[in-house]
Design a protein that fits this description.
Elements: H1 3-17, E1 20-22, H2 30-35, H3 38-50, E2 54-66, E3 88-90, E4 99-104, E5 109-117, E6 125-129, H4 131-136, E7 144-154
Parallel strand pairs: 2-6, 3-5
Antiparallel strand pairs: 1-5, 2-7, 3-6, 4-5, 4-7
């Protein structure tokens, strides 16, 4: 694979990781796209258009929670400053930079997050999601959700993304 193609794929990955992702198995009401803000519709269209370069591998089904206000602005285990409004998560052992697609089993909503911290403390929980990720999954008020977690690869690349977005 040429360096130019690798660079384009890497740039595309960086663009896509900031967008929430719709679960292709969940039913989509196309009429609801007309009432959503234009930015949300554009992001969903980009994800659908470029989803063929993304590969998803089932990691596990588990319970997750979210964290934010008490840690916002502090240094995370990866060295990055934690921002509760970015799509990130904490996991006990996955390499920093690993991309995960998290799908809420109760409503089918999905989001792609990047591992930037260590946690959660509770052994019955698999991930601590950022507040922004919890909002995308519609689990802010519940606090805990049952989810499907999938590892994300871009066209066969399996190396973690080490940049902080």
């Amino acid at each position: 694979m040429s360096n130019a193609l690798k660079t384009v794929l890497f740039a595309l990955l960086l663009m896509l990781t900031g967008f929430s992702v719709e679960n292709p198995k969940a039913k989509t009401d196309e009429s609801s796209l007309k009432t959503k803000p234009a930015k949300d519709v554009k992001n969903a269209e980009l994800v659908r258009k470029y989803s063929s370069i993304l590969e998803f591998t089932l990691f596990k089904e588990a319970k997750v929670t979210w964290y934010g206000p008490g840690f916002h602005g502090r240094k995370s285990a990866s060295g990055a400053i934690y921002d509760q409004e970015k799509l990130t998560c904490a996991h006990r052992s996955l390499p920093f930079g690993t991309l995960l697609r998290v799908t809420n089993k109760s409503n089918g909503k999905s989001v792609i997050v990047k591992v930037t911290d260590r946690g959660p403390v509770g052994r019955s929980l698999e991930l601590d999601l950022s507040k922004a990720a919890a909002r995308e999954l519609d689990m802010l008020y519940a606090g805990v959700a049952r989810v499907t977690i999938e590892k994300v690869k871009v066209n066969g690349f399996n190396t973690p993304i080490l940049t902080v977005f």
